[in-house]
Records
---
Amino acid sequence: LEELAEAEDGYSFSVWSALARKYRVTVVYGFAAKVAGGYTIATAVVGTRGELIAVYHKLHLAQFGDSMEKEYFVPGNRQLAIFEINGFRIAPIICYDIRAPELCRTLAVDHGVQVVLHTGAYARDPSFYSWHAFAQTRAIENQTYFLSLNRAGGHFGGSVLCPPWIDEHHQPVYLSENKEQLYVSTLSLQVLEQARTDYTFLEDRLSDYQLPVVGSMSTVSGKK
């Protein structure tokens, strides 16, 4: 990490900034960031003019299976990163962040995010096989596009793009099982808005779920 970690405007930024400027595209990339107190796992967004739009530092560190992040990294600075492209509000999250439903919920409900970019390094340990269920759930419950990208390789792979609604006519798109792949997809605001019109999950939420409890708490806990 001492050799690979870098500042937000470090080497990786210079490379991706030049590419974004050359092709007039927005680029989202990951890097190990040097911060006060150690290193974080980070995602940066570079705009079409090569400018640094935002940096997101992973909030939740995994310490199970093949993930030993707490031994090397510190949690992020408790800030969200949100940017816009062609009418879409987009936010990145990283790997283990997917398993805290409150994060995607606040992005969608409080900040109007319509596309979640979720990058990770999901090794094929026992936790790997629950990952796709989380990705589909986050997409459906928040009615967002959810792009969940894993690193390539025989011990990883399985990336998936989930639409804001899933049924027999609208299915997730699974990328190459293990290999690197260039995949082009067109997202539709109309599809997203139709899903939210047909299924009013977000509108029907209560403003507050801190509700009074009816019944005996001792009964709920199993005590007499």
---
Amino acid sequence: MSALRAAGLQPTHRGRVAEILRSTQLFRDEEVDVALELFDEGSLKPNTDYSLLGLFDDAGALIGFACYGPTPDTDRTYDLYWIAVHAEAQGAGAGTVLLNEVERRLRDDDARLLVIETSSRADYAATRGFYARRGYVEAARVGHFYAPDDDRIIFTKRFVRPREGAGVVS
């Protein structure tokens, strides 16, 4: 994969974010609308709880994005609301680069836990495998949540920070 660069997103990226979501062929129109509402909230309103991160290829084209933020009323827990890579860029490591950058930023913010929810539908099997291969564990499942026979699967990853004084020899 060529050089990829992660950076914040601007309101002008809205159309491309919609293209990325639709290219995956996983999200219904209503889901794309929800993602764009969060995009609008994060890109148009300063000091929002939604952080937007874009992944750009070496030509400067936006090929993926993530939206994440702190979970209200928790101790350093965050939710990953959306992560998507354009279908043409999938399978070459772009999703891993994007997720790693989200995790790096969360660690820098002293995050304790990242929560991701996804569907149990068969067409989400690759998504669930993606998270599992990156150290996420299934923490909960809510049966028939999204629709009959479509469970909500909740993955989590804990971020361990070094104990104070760890590694110091006296």
---
Amino acid sequence: MNTDKLNKICIAMAMEQEAQPFIEYFNLVKAPDVFSKHLPFVCYQAPNDNSLSVVVSGRDPRYDVDNIGTQAATLQAYASIQALAPDLMISAGTAGGFASRGAQIGTVYLSDDKCVFHDRRVPIEGFNESAIGHLPVLKVNKMALDLDMPLGVISSGSSLEKSDKDIEVIERFNAVAKEMEAAAVAWVCWLHCLPFFAVKSITNLLDEPESSEEQFLENLQFSSDKLTEKLVQVVQYLKDKSLSDLSV
């Protein structure tokens, strides 16, 4: 049983708009010189306090958009672990969900069991399951119960739009959220034997007729506010806790 307290927590987020309400709630400011000048990532901490770090993926200067997706998330997670040496990594952000599984716009899930990739289709024995990932996440069922948060498998890929092939994989694992970063962060954490879980707020419902893009843009601010509400509860819950306190 791990009874060591969680003294340093790093929250990895892709989009500034997703992160800003949480950053403002805790009065975090940009921490200088955390990453190489060649990397776009931005770290936010309280002044003279590295117990809570929020790392945002930064901007693509060519197109003036957030660096989203698995590629940025992989490098972001690796750079954050090297620079910050956290005791726990959390992937937080927005995701698509399923009304048929009880989701509404703004439902916030905690990850359960594993993260998978839904768009890595390699029909060769061994490579197929490796591509999907089956990446373990920290068991947090006690925290979920105490905070009244639903649990589920989180599925990641590189596209926002709906795809029948992607949905087939998501259905296979009964995933509750389709997003673009968590499994990438989970892979890096698994390599480093670093505890990891995800917190995802639903912006769009994939089993409703509206396009994912329209729903995402329409609901991003609302879902980001809901994400902050629950993420604040999660961080406050984790204070003075050990890993063994999070599960039953």
---
Amino acid sequence: MKLDLHLGGLATATQSAPAAEAANAAGVWSAETGSDPFLPLAVAATVTDRVELGTAIAVAFARNPMTVATLAHDIQSLSGGRMILGLGSQVRAHIERRYSMEWSKPAARMREFVRALHAIWACWDDGEPLRFEGDFYRHTLMTPAFSPLPFPDGRPRVFLSAVGTLMTSVAGEVADGLLVHPFSTSRYLREVTLPALARGLERAEDPTRPFELTAPSFVVTGDTDEEYAAADRAARERIAFYASTPAYRGVLEVHGWGEVQEELNRLSKAGQWKEMGNLIDDDMLDAFAVCAPPDEVGARLSERYGDVCDRVLLGGLPVGPEQLQRTVDALGASSPDPRRFTTGTGA
């Protein structure tokens, strides 16, 4: 598998992006958690030459296809064709109450969002009139003064983040890759995600196109007992946060843990965020996270996901450049032929 790293925010991009490239990471990704996801990539594009630059994720429904198409165009052009546009839907409460945007039929809306992006990019590349009219988005005006130059290095690839089967299927149908949500397990990936993805690939215009699968990556590790304990606690609290979301209950139910979601949801509504992590027992932690000493993280990730995933996005590994390089090497040996996912098989 390829190893990708989280870029961090805007303030650290000039240091973290070159460091990741020096360690031979395949990509760096910027998240929309307390920071804009696009600005750090623009900075990273100016201080790197090789590493891919992705959003993991940008919230699609907080924006519209035209604004996202423009941002992705700028970063793709600035980086010499290294942009991966990772999009996610977020959940209804955040779209309506945090972003004050409309929520409806998220899977159908995301399918149309991606198709609108490609229609806009085709207009800029080919000079044809813009005529995209869908159920959720309508783009029918593009004048020369507002049209960017054609992509000099090809269009960005589009990856979608998904948990449920409908959105996963949409990724297979219209995207170039799937960002498997961190709140996933190897069992859920194999029993639920891969079949749903295969159904989407069967509906795609080109089901044999290159398509990359990115593995989930909760990691508990540390060079000292204190570091390991801190990583363990942080992972339990983050898993609990995701598990409190009703939309993600299906992942828990695969393992027979559905009732935990109700209690976590109750605690979240009471603002008891720290207490929620106490409900994540060792079995749940092991299902969602790779727990290992630093020198064994790469091998453990490879064992868990190397036969079905092309890349893994790793965050929070508290090690130096030498250990990071060993993790890159361990993962790189497991998948000599990336982009191998095809309909009906994961390898």
